[in-house]
Design goal:
alpha+beta, 15 strands, 27% strand, six-stranded mixed sheet, globular
């Protein structure tokens, strides 16, 4: 069977060493920040600086007036330290380097895999800090600590500390062996389909979430949930956890309004392009591919069946 080691997942598997042990060493972090070999990943209006197929990294001198407390230590790669830094929200940032600031959704289809992983990490940390500028307990201002990985309340009587947030979500390819079950959300084009997905609720295991979401949305009961792979999905902070699950006999019924349509599709129907699949940058495509591909036959990628990126924004911005 296909395993996560066989899959190429966008935003995952980069060579960066996060050097978590250095975050508690303020002197080491300050020294890394000042090191001429260190490079910075600039984030402007949550856009990343891209040059061709690579992330554009800048030096301390090119960065200008940014201070250590404005940066997030990302780790070490290729023998040099890396930081993310948020640029002021000005109309047009001036950096003495080439490249352009692009939205992450656009960048993910342009960048080499390692660079996509790096800029997604940088953007996620900056976005998390921006959304935790004030303490959730007392409302006072927060300040970054531990190289940017803690937002600590400045009120001496509170002391609450916030850590980077992730929202776990399951995503599952339901099948009965010969057919797979795909759904279409109301905001999508009529021929665009994908796997079933949803956020994990408090007090719920991943397997429980799979069973609940598939029951709630297309009214199908599943068994034999099998984990395949996960994908960091920074829109804004989801972690997509991918499964295959076997369907019990049953009729499709759209229960909760999350889907506009759901269909059982054979491999032949998918190969005939009866529906448009997710892009190959998504774990959804990889889950379908792991079911579709069979030894000695052309696979999804060889057939060119990956769909284009979908530019629909919605609350939670879940996997498409």
């Amino acid at each position: 069977p296909v395993t996560s080691a066989d899959m190429q997942i966008t935003f995952a598997g980069g060579p960066l060493d996060r050097c978590g042990e250095l975050r508690v060493d303020s002197e080491a972090i300050a020294s890394a920040f000042a090191d001429p070999a260190t490079r910075f990943v600039p984030v402007w209006r949550y856009r990343c600086l891209v040059e061709g197929a690579h992330a554009a990294l800048v030096t301390r001198v090119e960065l200008g007036r940014a201070a250590l407390d404005q940066a997030v230590f990302l780790g070490q790669q290729d023998g040099r330290f890396l930081f993310a830094v948020r640029l002021d929200d000005e109309p047009d940032p001036e950096l003495p380097v080439s490249g352009e600031f692009v939205e992450l959704r656009e960048a993910m289809s342009r960048l080499a895999a390692d660079d996509a992983s790096l800029v997604a990490y940088a953007r996620a940390m900056i976005l998390w800090q921006d959304r935790h500028r004030h303490c959730g307990c007392c409302g006072q201002a927060n300040r970054p600590e531990l190289a940017g990985f803690v937002m600590a309340c400045t009120h001496s009587g509170c002391g609450h500390r916030s850590f980077p947030r992730l929202d776990p979500a399951i995503i599952v390819l339901v099948h009965d062996g010969d057919r797979c079950l795909l759904g279409r959300q109301p905001t999508w084009p009529e021929d665009r389909f994908s796997t079933i997905a949803g956020f994990v609720e408090p007090g719920e295991s991943l397997e429980d979430a799979v069973r609940r979401e598939v029951r709630e949305e297309p009214n199908i009961t599943v068994r034999g949930c099998r984990y395949l792979a996960s994908q960091p999905w920074p829109f804004p902070a989801a972690l997509m956890i991918g499964f295959h699950a076997r369907a019990e006999p049953g009729e499709i019924r759209l229960n909760d309004g999350e889907l506009a349509e759901a269909r059982w599709l054979t491999r032949e129907q998918i190969a005939a392009r009866e529906v448009i699949l997710p892009p190959d940058t998504s774990v959804a495509f990889r889950l379908i591919e792991a079911w579709f591909d069979r030894p000695g036959e052309p696979g999804l990628a060889a057939l060119g069946l990956a769909g284009p990126a979908l530019r629909v924004r919605r609350p939670g911005d879940a996997q498409n």
